[in-house]
Design brief:
The chain has 17 helices and no strands. It has 387 residues and is mainly alpha-helical. It has one domain: Up-down Bundle (Growth Hormone, Chain: A), CATH 1.20.1250. This is MFS transporter.
């Protein structure tokens, strides 16, 4: 079962490993402007605002999450094929919106499938999820090495085997039985979402993803401007994910020694330091390597903590919708806003300015988190609105 669960994570994040480091370079090679690149890269996050809520609701209502994952895998791959038509900016924008609407359905649904499949062994989630990091590294390193020999215009063709892997692995997950839950109490979802601690949680993650806008959109271009080649860029991206794997492996120990609030505030502070170092000291390789190691804080620590928050706050009745809100409001809205803001900063100033913008977003997030974040409930009951 662990192998079946890990397999889809591997291929899903392998596709991210091909898109995030190299898609902006591909778009630059196609002659798009910085603002156009920011807009196209933002679509990867933009459809997360609506798509996970739609698919999460369907998953909760029907209980057929595995079938929906398979639909997203196949349909997303078909729409991505529109890239090969070279449709220009607006055509490519439509292709990316259609492709990511179905592709972004996969992960929130699959997170629920994984946690329910693990049952009482949910502490093993990190070990299952780390295979996504392995897939990311494999794609980043492999595609980066190939791009040293072929033009970046070949990138869509290099992604085709990854799409095949996603489709095959989606059909290796055993089908769920139809799930019929008793109806949730009326108004309970609204009570959860408006709870002050939940509001602080979503604001923290929104600002976290805003700060990542420069990283996911312009980090590769930033490195290229400082003289790094495709293979070196791939290795630097991989280093960040290797640190992520390391943290996932020891995360259960950290949660025993520190509260989730302490982990969140510490990780936000390290993320702020990371963006400042990338903004000013990219040419100093040891500093850049250290900054990439801080990806363990920027992503892994905060994501692992956030999964616990969603599970604790939203409970059994609203787990799917909670996961969808987490994905949509943070990775979706935050990521899209971050990508667009970074595009304006790069177009008006420089790539370094965009990373300084991310550091400012982290400073605000630290204040909000220190004032409003609370530990999630241990049980699956909804939080009371009195605290």
């Amino acid at each position: 079962m662990y192998w079946r669960l890990s397999n889809l994570y591997f291929w899903f994040f392998a596709l991210l490993g091909g898109l995030l480091p190299y898609w902006s370079l591909y778009l630059q090679g196609q002659g798009f402007s910085y603002l156009q690149i920011a807009t196209l890269m933002a679509t990867i996050q933009l459809t997360k605002i609506a798509a996970p809520s739609v698919w999460g609701h369907l998953g909760d209502k029907t209980g057929q999450r595995v079938r929906l994952v398979r639909l997203g895998a196949i349909t997303g791959s078909v729409f991505f094929a529109g890239v090969f038509l070279e449709p220009g900016f607006y055509g490519l924008l439509l292709v990316m919106l259609a492709f990511t609407f179905f592709w972004n359905a996969i992960l929130p649904l699959y997170e629920v499938i994984t946690l329910r499949s693990l049952g009482k062994h949910r502490d093993k989630y990190g070990k299952v999820r780390l295979w996504g990091s392995v897939g990311f590294i494999a794609a980043v390193a492999g595609i980066g090495a190939i791009l040293e020999w072929v033009a970046v215009g070949w990138l869509p063709w290099l992604l085709l085997p990854v799409f095949a892997g996603i489709a095959v692995s989606a059909f290796l997950v055993p089908a769920e039985r139809g799930e019929r839950k008793p109806p949730a109490p009326k108004g309970s979802l609204k009570a959860i979402v408006t709870h002050p601690a939940v509001v602080a949680f979503f604001l923290m993650n929104f600002l976290l993803q805003v700060s990542h806008g420069a990283y996911y959109t312009f980090f590769s271009i930033h490195l290229e401007q400082h003289g790094y080649g495709s293979f070196a860029i791939g290795l630097l991206w991989s280093l960040g994910v290797i640190s992520e794997i390391g943290l996932f492996l020891i995360m259960h120990r950290l949660t025993r020694k520190f509260t989730v609030r302490q982990i969140a505030i510490g990780a936000l502070g390290l993320t702020m330091v990371r963006w400042a170092l990338i903004a000013e000291l990219t040419d100093v390789l040891p500093i850049l390597l250290f900054a990439q190691l801080l990806h363990a804080a920027s992503y892994a620590a905060l994501h692992a903590v956030s999964v616990q928050y969603v599970q604790g706050f939203f409970g059994q009745h609203h787990h799917g919708q909670g996961q969808a809100l987490y994905s949509g409001l943070t990775f979706g809205a935050g990521g899209a806003v971050g990508a667009w803001l970074s595009g304006f900063l790069v177009d008006g100033f420089s790539t370094s300015a965009a990373f300084w913008g991310g550091a400012v977003a982290m400073a605000i997030a630290i204040i909000i988190t220190a004032r409003g974040l609370q530990a999630p409930p241990v049980s699956h009951s909804e939080p009371s609105s009195s605290s």
